[in-house]
Amino acid sequence: MWMLIAAVGAGVFIYQFLTELLKGRYSILETRLNEIAGIGETSQKQVKRWEGSLMSRMGKAALERLSSTVATVLPVSRREKQRISFLMARAGLRIQPEEYMVLQILSLIGGAVLGMYLGFVFDRDILFLAVAGLYAGYTVFRLFFRQKMRRRQNSILEQLPELLDLLSISVEAGLSFNQAFQYIAEQCEGPLVDEFIFAGRAMVLGRSRRAALEDMSCRCGLDEVQTFASAVIQADEMGISLRNILVSQAAEARNAKRMRIEERAQKVPIKMLLPMALLIFPVLLIILMAPAVPQIMNALM
Fold first, then answer.
1. How far is residue 174's CA from residue 48's CA, in Å, rounded to a whole number?
2. What is the SS3 string spanning 192-214?
3. pLDDT tens digit string along 45-99?
4. What is the C-alpha separation between 26 and 92, in angstroms, rounded?
5. What does the alpha-carbon distance between residue 87 and residue 6 come to, in Å, rounded to a whole number?
6. Distance between CA 177 and CA 209 in Å, rounded?
7. Closest CA relative to residue 166, chosen from 180, 177, 156
8. Which residues contact 95 (CB under 8 A, 6 or more apart)?
9. pTM
10. End-to-end CA distance of the chain, in Å?
11. CA distance 27 to 33
């Protein structure tokens, strides 16, 4: 029993370690972009390169050392690096492809070691449990990043109508498109605001609006954001007023959000069938059959 508790505790510790390790990567990149964009300006506060707890700093240093080793031993192709980079960007994690490979290898090794440990403790087939732990580590690793990507995309979809409304109002008030991006970045927060910040910084550093918006849509991985980016790019190339485009895009985003809410509401009765069958129907059966139980017992006796 104590061995099982120790194994579960080790798994929780590894999960918390990875969560703490990956949490600060996004802030480091954002700090670098802010420093580049603010060249020649007086910085109001000194930002340290390493932030966070002792475990986070040690983990980052070890991860960078292991990633350099993995890049030497197991080189990753350019196409695979691009694929991993887009996947990590969609999950909200700004880590290098080599670091992703290191984390994947560590999860596989951790799952195999945990399976061998359980096989040794419970006197089972160690090789089988090691293979099962290897597969479990791979599955948990993929589910972890997929769940983070899904949560971030849902947050972007929830935030899109409000930010498009604010963007259209800002442009209508006389601000340029880049100034409206900067205003939203100062007034709001969230995953979509972070993408607006990156796109705005890219445009400030000389990247074209088309390239910045296309990169933003690829990082989000959502059709709604891609439609917004395509509409703005077409309006910019054809000379159409951005105000009308932004107003129509905000209206479409609100309608899409309303349709998603209605779709979820229609699924609620179906999802309630299982709790009703398991919890309500047995109670009703007991209430209806309880008065007849004494008579049945007397008849049998």
1. 37
2. HHHHHHHHHHHHHCCCCHHHHHH
3. 334 444 555 556 666 666 666 666 666 666 677 788 788 888 888 888 877 787 7
4. 7
5. 33
6. 10
7. 180
8. 22, 25, 88
9. 0.68
10. 46
11. 10
